[in-house]
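Late entry, evening session. Most of the bench is empty. Finally got around to the prediction I had been postponing all week. Sequence below, unchanged from the version circulated by S.P.
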Amino acid sequence: MGEINVVPYIDVMLVLLIIFMVTAPLLTQGIEVELPKVGAEPMDTEATEPLVLTVDRDGRMFLNVVEPDQAVDAGVLVQRAAAVIRRSPEKPVLVRADTNTAYGHVALAMRLLQDAGAPSVGMVTDPEALPEAARE
C-alpha cells in the first residue's frame, strides 16, 4: 500500500505564501515620488491600465511602458506614448509628478503627451480629505 505524505508539501506552500505576501507590496512602480496631497474623487482605472508619465524631483521622466524604471528623453517619450495612444486611444493618460518638481518640468511633460496625441491628461495625487470649508 503506497501513501504520499503531503505534510512537507503543505509546509513549502505556506512558506511560499508568506514570501509572496511580503514581496507583493514591494512590487509597485519603481520610481519614488512624493505626490502632492489634494482631495479629489478617484478615477475609475480598472477597465484599462493607464499610461503614466512619472516626473521625479530632478525633472527626469519615466514612462510605464517597456522599461518603467529607465529615464527617457523627450523624443523617445513622444514616440512611445504616441504608439500606445494609437494602439488604444481610450487609454487614460496620467502625469505622476513629485510635489517638489519645478512647475516647468510638469508643464513640459504635459506638452510632450499632447504632442504624442493624448486627448486629455490627468494628474495623479495622494487623496486627502477636504477641509469642511472647501466642501461647502
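Two things to note before I forget:
The first helix runs from residue 7 to 23.
The radius of gyration is 21 Å.
Will write this up properly tomorrow.
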